Target: Short-chain dehydrogenase/reductase family protein
Amino acid sequence: MNVHHFNFNETNSTGASSGIGESCAKIFHQNGNHVIILGRRIDKLNEIKRNLENSESKAKVFAMECDVTSSESINDMVTKLPTELKNIDILINNAGLALGSEPVSNISNDEIDRVIDTNVKGVFRVTRSFLPDMIKRNTGHIFNVSSIAGNHWYVNGSIYCASKAAVNAFSDIVRKEVVATKIRVTNVCPGLVETEFSVIRFGGDVEKAKKPYMGIDALTPDDIADNIYYAASRPEHVQITTIETMANNQASTTVIHRV
Model:
């Protein structure tokens, strides 16, 4: 199902049960693209699926529970994809998290494992699951949702910054490895985006989670999804390699003017 001049059919987004992943599902679907939404919260995914199916777009929506920290879960997901949706044209690796804001001397092994398993290993595993078919078909576009924290490192953010620096390197390497193909790779590096991200980071403490966004008009998930859709909809010979987007009044992870 080609849409206007766009050359993609199926979009697969991980971490799609909220935030940027959910917004990506919406913008691609409303523009006539079949979407596959993956995440750990199947109830939320099914709610998003129902909302999309009730919209004007007639494109298909497929929701499946998938834990990107588990190779078994990813393999099961790939096996169970409907035949008509197996040829993934757009892959959006969005699943990610941060935990706490402690110095290296105080962080736990559990926090290290959970962040690295999700933010780094998850991107490797999911990409590896779909990239061989993209290479075989000589088409595809991979989006890795990183962060400005992958370049603008900050105190008490060691695990998260390291994980996003790894995603940046991964994106650059994959792009070089597929340079002889028509596959495109875009690294997406948002600044302050107000989502459930901080609620998870601070263990459900809603008041503490609000503080990073106080005094500044933060980005929204729709802003980032709009960036991603723009890059995906460029002519085939155009590859946008990196998108770094910050809110106005933000210059880095720590240089922020608040009113």
Observations:
- The chain has one domain: 10-245.
- The radius of gyration is 18 Å.
- The longest helix spans residues 109-137.
